[in-house]
Design goal:
elongated; 5 helices; alpha+beta; two-stranded antiparallel ribbon; eight-stranded mixed beta sheet; 12 strands
Length: about 250
């Protein structure tokens, strides 16, 4: 029992290591490109306009709140077919636009920027991992002036701006469920298949053919449980009996 638990724990640890390594590599090297957007209404006169950027192993969601009635939202969707309508519940769980507190903070920053004559950057949520998003981070909106641009502040990770506007190299450590667990199991099974799979298959075929599972020596004719005379390790197991056709 303990050996089985240790076996599973070791391979899950391998899966976690590979999962995190691939996710962080995607967050650092992959540059997301704009793919489309969503328009999600969350109040009678408010909606969130979300721009989605994607690349292999990386997704970026930048968003802003806009004043729009349900009718205006529907009209905007009809006028621009590339921006489908959605609800907040359809957004990924790691998207901060789902949080009322984050939406209120974004609106307050916009009001402050309007009073001070500056600007405000959009909140950005970055999800990394393949085949599913397993880690994420959020970049706070920034108030800026023509001369002073404050650095980016990230929660759940760290970001570095690239020479492409609003594109980041990211390292995240906030897990996204169930993506983190599913990716871990996927990579653990893949690693086991590549490292231990061929050996396990070879031993199974030798046992089925009545050969030593260690060296492949033919053990037919020996007593059940006899030690292999060639290597002294494998023991004889009766090969599977091939069943003939059933007599009707």
């Amino acid at each position: 029992m303990r050996r089985g638990i240790l076996f599973v724990a070791i391979w899950l640890l391998v899966g976690v290591t590979v999962n995190v390594a691939i996710a962080e590599a995607a967050g650092w090297f992959s540059i997301a490109n704009i793919k489309g957007g969503l328009l999600a209404s969350f109040a009678p006169n408010r909606a969130a306009l979300i721009c989605e950027s994607r690349s292999i192993g990386k997704k970026e969601l930048s968003w802003m709140t806009i004043a729009a009635s349900p009718g205006e939202v529907s009209q905007s969707v009809r006028m621009n077919k590339s921006i489908p309508q959605a609800t907040l519940g359809e957004l990924p769980g790691w998207c901060s636009a789902r949080s009322a507190e984050c939406r209120e903070a974004e609106q307050e920053n916009s009001r402050v920027a309007a009073r001070q004559g500056g600007g405000v950057s959009q909140p950005i949520d970055i999800g990394i991992g393949w085949p599913l998003v397993s880690l994420s981070l959020s970049v706070e909106p920034r108030l800026w002036h023509p001369v002073v641009v404050p650095p980016s502040i990230a929660h759940g990770g760290a970001v570095w701006e690239t020479n492409v506007v609003h594109r980041y190299r990211a390292l995240a450590w906030r897990p996204v469920w169930p993506g983190f667990a599913l990716n871990t199991c996927f990579y653990a099974l893949l690693a086991w298949s590549l490292i231990r799979g061929p050996r396990t298959l070879r031993r199974w075929r030798r046992r089925r053919a009545g050969r030593c599972i260690a060296c492949g020596y033919d053990l037919k004719g020996l007593a059940v449980g006899a030690v292999c005379p060639e290597c002294g390790r494998g023991s004889y197991r009766t090969p599977a009996v091939t069943r003939g056709p059933r007599n009707e």
